[in-house]
Write the structure tokens for this entry.
Amino acid sequence: MSDPVIELRDVTRRFGALTVLDGVSMSLLRGETTVIVGPSGTGKSTLIKLLVGLLKPDAGTVLVDGQDVGKLGRAELMRLRRKFGMLFQDGALFHGMTVAQNVAFPLRHHLALKREEEERRVEVALQQVGLPGLGRRRPDELSGGQRKRVGLARALVMEPMIVLFDEPTSGLDPVTSAAIDELIVDTRKRLGLTFVVITHDVQSCVHIADRVGMLWEGRLRAWGPLAEVTASTDPVVRQFFDRRSDGPIKVV
Amino acid sequence: MDALASVGAFSRFCVRGVRVLPRMDRRETLDVAASMAFGTLLVTLAVTAFAGAMLTVQGFASLKAFGTPELLGMFISLAGVREVFPLIAAGCIGAKLGSALAAEVATLRTGQQLDALEVMGIEPLEHLLMPRMTAATLVTPLLAGLGVLCGLGASGVIATLQLGVDPGAFWARALDSIHPRDIAAGLTKALAFGALTGSLGCWHGYTAGSGPWAVGRAANLTVVQLMVVGALVNLLLSHLFYGGLL
């Protein structure tokens, strides 16, 4: 069995009087794809921000590769973040730059590569996401799915240990969503990295996950291998995975 | 209490900015400064020229009523060069540059590009914010100086060509009334206003919420606070330079 690369121990995070995460504990294993699902507003985005230190927990510990994220100083945190790549919801690309410049951005800031080597790595990253030869385009000239692929290329170009995906299929049509799912599965198999995906897309979850955590009302309602969670008889889990409006999860 | 907490957070943000100054991206600073200067120059020159013309017409009418129209050059130097032209230039710079800066950074916040920088291990203060704050601080004295010259030039043109004031007398009195202290005061005020423009614009952009409305709110807050705080700082510096405090 793989060792845990990320551990959350009794993590609580509040925003004012609102407790968004309440005593969440989980161990994310190296080389696996862990998918965190749950209805909107249950703390999925907060959880991913805690992993990279964009937020600090009010209580509990977040360990990444053995380091306590909440206790790191600014410089140490910046160093730790180089172990991560992250695909943001809409790619979070810089619109004043070309696709190639966007993908090369972290390389230029962290590695003093020769121009040829930088161009080679950018092209490899673009090939990995199925967009070879699109380096000269601007983000505005790309479709939503292509922007996400470029975002993934940028996340992969520094050869990270862990890749985070924030709602990778949101806003995409079913065919493009399926293509992004395939890309995630294929990339993980080829590169053997640890993937953490947050989504409320049940179909996507079933397609890509090795392990699933379900958040509800700030707590970890279900946790385990995909087959185990999808077979759960918990009414909350059943309602979510069966995509029913009637049940304990109330639509607000 | 909220306002006090905001001032505290803004102060900490500025201190963090000063700390990263040695590691700031200098190339980005120069690129941004050039873009700011060219983007703001025309509107600053146009508005200060109109202000110069307006001040000259008003000043001439008032001085003529007292039988001293020959003092017009001195009046333009004292009122225009010391206060009106720099303030008008500052207003243009604040409105154009400050709002653009806040909107740019807020758009990066709402589009998650600021988060993306952080996750890539790239410090936004070093590579994005401090270059913009520094560029605004450096460009504002240049723009304000050109604005003052433009306002003075427009005054000269209106005084001599339209109002019939003797050119030699106008320029002699105008230039005699400008002292090194005026230049020092103008430079200090412009530097302070530039630093305020850069820091408030970046702060409101950096702390913008989510959604399109956050961008407009950041730009609006920047301009409103710049007007109020800028006028206050101008008053304090005028007291410092001309009120016998220095």
About this structure: The radius of gyration of chain A is 18 Å.
